């Protein structure tokens, strides 16, 4: 049987059509390059291993690094905060879903009243026969109310809540990626600082040996005091670098502990023994710049927030239209005794069709919509900027990786030559061919080149981490976001 009442027909037709006021969201298109500028150079790198972009940290071949990243992904407190924000967004989505459904409640009361005979009402009642100053009342009701989402304002609100929920899930993935990358960068920094300290300490030992030789020559009258003081000054200058590097190493170890969600000093014993700087693996499966839109969680988060801002406009436009609600009540009430409460004579029922319409409040609605449109424009600009910066991150990381690795290779050859030059200069000094200045200069050149080589190795490994992060590696887009 078809409904005949026009209002009922309007309600049924609107609900069945599923229409919703406001603009439908369309994902913005972004112009991107077909390939990265540095992609060919990165693909041609020579590396000992290939890295799966999902679990890229395993490609460095350092079990301790893998263990620390795994621990950080389980215990990091930034990640715990992001996960808590997902719970909040899930609750908001639940509230938006609930707003589309009928709401019900059960109420009941029992009351006993005593009527004063001195009040006007009491004087009137007391003059009546069989007046009882005590009165009882009993009532129980089941009520329900349902706001009919005829024009789709509530559904737009649900769209906004769902998009925010998706954005919060993407936020967890983005935090997860950041935590893994930052943990790797700190660990690599620790190994780099230890390698630099090793270079300095070996240079200190070399300078001490030189000082012992000069002192011996000085004691035998074969060297001047000036030469002794020159070597002592050079040795002191080298030693001044040790406290600075130690300070940086302490800070890096403390930072790693915090990343792992533990007090500073917790993992220091594990890190005391120096190890080689992790070597960056070959990056495979990097894809094209357009793949960043679905692989980088920060871009997914920005896009979902844009979708939420679009849906909020529709929810606000829904305030232009009347709100209809259906409410009903069924229950029982008695003032005689509780035994009569559920008798047929005590039953009561009511049905109400409600109307709410902000007919004279359109100015405020206009202002709210304009504000939301401004927010949407801001979110759109933020999304576009995020896409551009994502591509910039990749290109910069590729450039640093390629050039730093090339620098490290060049410096490796230079260190070999300077090591040989230092040996030759010291031999020449002992035979009187060159002065002590040449020996000290050779020591300084060797120290500088060795230190730069270690820094280049450290930076190139960190650039590889930055490249994996910029490419959106470290999580599963299809499984972690719904």
Q: What does the model show?
A:
Helix 6 runs antiparallel to helix 8. The protein has 482 residues and is an alpha+beta fold. It folds into 2 domains: 387 residues, Outer membrane efflux proteins (OEP); 69 residues, Outer membrane efflux proteins (OEP) (Single Sheet), CATH 2.20.200. The longest helix is centred in the C-terminal third of the chain and has 69 residues.
> Which runs of at least 5 residues are low in confidence (pLDDT < 50)?
1-17
Number of strands: 6
Radius of gyration: 38 Å
H/I helix tally: 14
- Could you please say which CATH topology of the largest domain applies here? Outer membrane efflux proteins (OEP)
Query: What is the architecture of the largest domain at the second tier of CATH?
Result: Up-down Bundle
Mind describing the biggest β-sheet? 4 strands, antiparallel
In the CATH scheme, the class of the largest domain would be: Mainly Alpha
Spatial strand order of the main sheet: 2-3-5-6
Structural class: alpha+beta
Q: Tell me the domain tally.
A: 2
CATH superfamily of the largest domain: Outer membrane efflux proteins (OEP)
Would you tell me the overall average pLDDT? 86
Structure characteristics:
four-stranded antiparallel β-sheet, alpha+beta, two-stranded parallel sheet, Outer membrane efflux proteins (OEP), 2 domains, elongated, disordered N terminus, about 475 residues, single chain
